User: What shape does this take?
Amino acid sequence: MLLISYRSPQPRLPADVANAVARSYVEHTYNIRFRSSSSLANFMEKQIEELKAKMERSSAALAQFERELNVINPEEKTSILSARLLQLNTEYTNAHTDRVRKESAWKSVQSGTLEATQVSTQGENLKMLSAKLDEGRQKLADTKTHYGPNHPE
Assistant: This one.
């Protein structure tokens, strides 16, 4: 609060002077606050620009560090080596399963007859191969009877 007083023999002049001084004070205070806010805004803009530049440098450094560590997905911290190890482990498991299946088929072939092996997991393949073998034998017999045993086919 301000108390402004002015004395003059003219009745209108003191009111005009007091109002002008009050207006001048309000404008001066407004200008001071505006300049202060403006300089603060400029300061904050510079700070934001500096922070953006630091963030970009940090992001570039992080990307370089991830490349050096061979990180594929930074969220999961998965490296190229661990991804390759997982792939090799899966391939090993598949190969081991395939070997066991084929070994059991081989043992059934060694221990039993053709009918026993056709019932196994490899039965369909053996039936197809057996049919091809029969066709080949039939073709050989036809060629021998038609062209003779010394024909190149």
Summary: The first strand starts at residue 71 and ends at 73.
